[in-house]
Amino acid sequence: MRTSRRLAFTVIAMVCGIGGMRSQARAAYIVTVTQDGDNVVASGSGSIDTSGLAALGVATEWGFVANGFLITGPTAPVVVQNRTGFNNITARFGGTPSLTTASFGTGDVVGIVANSALFLPDEYVSGAALSSSATWDDATLAGLNLTPGDYTWTWGEGAHADRYELVINSAAPVPEPASMAVLGLPAAVMILRRGRRAAA
C-alpha cells in the first residue's frame, strides 16, 4: 500500500514539475505558427527587454502576414512602437507577397519584420508580460508561403540580452503542460486504487 501511494505521488509530482518548469521559462517572446486543421494559427507569449533596442517611432499595425512580416493580435488597427537593433540577421521566413489579414486575433499586437524591426504595443513597458494570437481561416502554411523552421532574433547584452523566436511547424500542436497534468492524474488514481485492492 505504501509503495503504491509513493508511486502515485511521484507521478503527480513529476507531472506538476513539468508544468512548473515550462511556466518559469519566460526569458523571451516565443511565437508558434501551426497548421491546425483547415486553419493556420499563430500564438505567442513571453516578455521583451527593450533596453537593447533602439526606438524607430510609431506605426499602425494589426494581425497579418506578408513577405517577411508576421504580426499577431487583433485585426483592428492599433498604434504600436517600432524598435530595431538586432544582433543577428535572420533568414526570411517567407510570407505571402501581398498582405493577408488574419481572420481574427486576440491579445497584444506583437510582430516581427525579418531583418529589420519589432512591433510592440505603443505603451509597452520593458519586461512586462505579452500574449497574442492570430488565426487565418481556410489557409495553409504553404498557401501563406510560410517556411517551416525555427527563426530567432537576438539583441542586447549581459543581463539585458533577449530574443524573439518564431517557430513555424506543420506538425500537430503538442499538449501544454497543464493538459499533461490532467492526463497524468488518472494514472495516479489507478495506482492508488490498485494499492487499496491489494491491501484488501
Strand sequence of the main sheet, in spatial order? 3-6-10-9-5-4-7
Task: Report helical residue fraction.
Answer: 10-25%
Overall, the morphology is: globular
Largest β sheet strand count, sense and barrel closure = 7 strands, antiparallel
Total beta-strand segments:
13
Q: Average pLDDT across residues? A: 82
**Low-confidence sequence ranges:** 7-26
Structural class comes to alpha+beta
Q: How much is the radius of gyration in Å?
A: 21 Å
Order of helices and strands: HEEEEEEEEEEEEEH
N-to-C span: 10 Å
Question: How much of the polypeptide forms β-strand, as a percent range?
Answer: 35-45%
> Counting H and I runs of at least 4 residues, what is the number of helices?
2
